[in-house]
Amino acid sequence: MNRPTPAVTATYPAPSAIFEVLHPITWFPPMWAFSCGVISSGQPILAQWLVVIAGIILAGPLMCATSQVVNDWYDRDVDAINEPHRPIPSGRIPGRWGLYLSLIWTTVSLALAYALGPWVFGIALVGMAIAWGYSAPPFRFKNNGWWGNLAAGVSYEGLAWITGAAVMIGGALPDWEILALALLYSLGAHGIMTLNDFKAIEGDTQMNVRSLPVQLGVDGAARVACLVMGLPQAVVIALLYSWDKPAHAMAVGVVLLIQVGLMIRFLGNPRERATWFSGLGVSVYVTGMMISAFAVRALIQAA
């Protein structure tokens, strides 16, 4: 007979447990979006390489990591049932250290953001409010797929993109073209976040988490995810043409057509193919982000 493994008890968390609760695998999207912001700013990169490195650290190991540990702290009771091996429910991060780490990472993130300029600090404040509101009561945006996925998309893509551009131009507000791309790719990321909800339909239903697959059903949520991913990219293509960047517009069009092909297969069996589509589709999606960033870079440098 298998006996449950007793929880680990300790006074302080081990470094390995801290690293695990910060979920480094999740840092790539905001770091990539930050890099898109750096490129789109039109500013010389090598001349500001220290600032770029500081911004990448802010976007991934600090801001994104903060959102992860905050989420794990406020999900600790659910994780104790579904994933008891995680650092907080297992006791490898003991007592209230999950909360303490959340506060420490929040403080360090905002301190670095402040050093990078007023607009960066303001954006970081918004991002941090979303990070806490996503997981913590009374807001807990993640309990509704419409609001939660939007909050995650804005944080991971839009705010990181704007921060990258703001860092490069001395902490000022970026040009409207940069803001437009950041907004559109944030909206598209809402669909990407929906793909992550298909693997947890039963648990979300039991815990009254109203993800889109729970609210709309599997097929309805799959169609919405594809539509929300595709439409903003179509607007990006139109904008690139209007900015006299036809080559970039065509390249993003090819990126979108590849995604449409993947979407058709995904819609044939959404529940089983959501992870597959997320892996391939997101890789193609972020390629379009960088192409668009280079288009705006050329536009700004030519002005």
Strand content: under 5%
SSE order: HHHHHHHHHHHHH
Cα distance, first to last residue? 73 Å
Largest sheet geometry: none
GO molecular function: chlorophyll synthetase activity
Keywords: Cell membrane, Chlorophyll biosynthesis, Membrane, Transferase, Transmembrane, Transmembrane helix
Membrane topology: Multi-pass membrane protein
EC number: 2.5.1.62
Task: For the structure shown, list the relevant keywords.
Tetracycline Repressor, domain 2, mainly alpha, disordered N terminus, single chain, Four Helix Bundle (Hemerythrin (Met), subunit A), 303 residues, 2 domains
Tell me what the structure shows.
The chain is mostly helical. The protein has 2 domains: 16-173, UbiA prenyltransferase (Tetracycline Repressor, domain 2, Orthogonal Bundle), CATH 1.10.357; 175-303, Four Helix Bundle (Hemerythrin (Met), subunit A) (Up-down Bundle), CATH 1.20.120. Helices cover 76% and strands 0% of the residues. The protein has 13 helices and no strands. It has helices at 15-21, 28-40, 49-74, 76-82, 87-90, 97-115, 118-135, 145-168, 176-195, 201-206, 212-242, 246-268, 270-302. Helix 2 (28-40) packs antiparallel against helix 3 and helix 11 runs parallel beside helix 13. The longest helix is centred in the C-terminal third of the chain and has 33 residues, at 270-302. The model is unreliable at 1-8 (pLDDT under 50). It is a multi-pass membrane protein. It is an enzyme of class 2 (transferase). It comes from Thiocystis violascens (strain ATCC 17096 / DSM 198 / 6111) (Chromatium violascens). One of its GO terms (biological process) is chlorophyll biosynthetic process. The chain crosses the membrane at residues 49-70, 111-134, 146-172, 178-195, 216-241, 247-268, 280-300.
